[in-house]
């Protein structure tokens, strides 16, 4: 008994446009999240040759409507979302600025999702939910914030209830992000340890920007441990967290990272080759 909006219908488009007009003009919204949590099913046979024909025409009409909204409000940021990644495709992302990748609240699962996100979306469009909770310890908070720093940070969670140490870690993460975010759109993601899978003990996501490389590494193993990352490197720097007990050193085989315990993570910056003078 539930009806879905059909964007082929001019009344639907006018209704939806009026809603956007109201929140932008009356409330001053500069960011709208189109969080349409439905499964539209196989489509509609109304005024169409088949269910598929009706669905395709609706999809195209919706994309056309989004383009109209962007033209009307060029400064408005539009987020594409539906139950995490249900509408994660580049018909949609060619029209929207950002994609919500997950609403996951468990810091462990967020890391796997964030690490795999570049296989599906551009890093500058991939919104990763940084959701610190008041009962997280400091290692867990740093682990969670590491997940978002190399893509698009969505900061949420129980910020006002955090301990002083955890709040400082969140603050430091955002300061770090502001320093590196200008490089994200020009960076190329790659996986020096292979594409991560749920259950892996250590995972790594790296981004190459010229001679510079930034990588996030997460350790899930209870005893911590050491992992060898096959990247020729120099000028190794631990970007986040600054007070981490994680060690990153150059070896004959590349970069060796030592984790003191489970659920520790860090963002590391290194040079893969010497930069030449310009």
Please describe what this structure looks like.
This protein is an alpha/beta fold and 278 residues long. The chain is built from 6 helices and 13 strands. The protein has helices at 10-25, 51-72, 90-93, 107-116, 138-148, 164-180, and strands spanning 31-35, 77-81, 98-100, 126-130, 152-155, 188-190, 202-209, 212-219, 225-229, 234-240, 247-251, 254-259, 264-271.
* Mean residue pLDDT: 92
Would you identify the regions where 5 or more consecutive residues have pLDDT less than 50?
none
Biggest beta sheet attributes: 5 strands, parallel
Rounded to the nearest angstrom, the distance between the terminal CA atoms is 66 Å
Quote the beta fraction. Answer: 25-35%
Helix percentage: 25-40%
Number of helices: 6
Strand order of the largest sheet: 1-2-3-4-5
Structural class: alpha/beta
- The total strand number stands at 13
């Amino acid at each position: 008994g539930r009806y879905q909006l059909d964007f082929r219908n001019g009344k639907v488009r006018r209704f939806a446009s009026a809603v956007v007009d109201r929140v932008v003009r009356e409330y001053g919204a500069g960011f709208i999240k189109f969080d349409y949590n439905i499964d539209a099913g196989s489509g509609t046979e109304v005024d169409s040759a088949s269910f598929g024909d009706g669905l395709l025409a609706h999809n195209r009409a919706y994309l056309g409507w989004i383009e109209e909204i962007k033209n009307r409000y060029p400064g408005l940021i539009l987020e594409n979302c539906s139950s995490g990644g249900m509408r994660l495709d580049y018909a949609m992302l060619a029209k929207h600025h950002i994609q919500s990748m997950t609403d996951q609240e468990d810091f462990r699962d967020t890391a796997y999702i964030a690490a795999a996100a570049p296989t599906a979306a551009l890093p500058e469009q991939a919104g990763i939910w940084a959701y610190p909770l008041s009962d997280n310890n400091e290692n867990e908070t740093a682990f969670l914030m590491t997940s978002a720093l190399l893509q698009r940070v969505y900061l949420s969670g129980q910020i006002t209830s955090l301990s002083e140490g955890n709040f400082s870690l969140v603050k430091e993460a955002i300061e770090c992000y502001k320093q590196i975010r200008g490089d994200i759109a020009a960076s190329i993601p790659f996986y020096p340890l292979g594409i991560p899978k749920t259950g892996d003990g250590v995972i790594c996501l790296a981004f190459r920007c010229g001679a510079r490389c930034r990588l996030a590494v997460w350790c899930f193993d209870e005893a911590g441990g050491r992992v060898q990352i096959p990247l020729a490197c120099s000028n190794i720097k631990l970007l986040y967290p600054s007070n981490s007990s994680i060690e990153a050193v150059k070896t004959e085989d590349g970069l060796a990272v030592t984790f003191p315990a489970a659920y520790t993570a860090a963002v590391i910056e290194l040079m893969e080759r010497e930069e030449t003078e310009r």
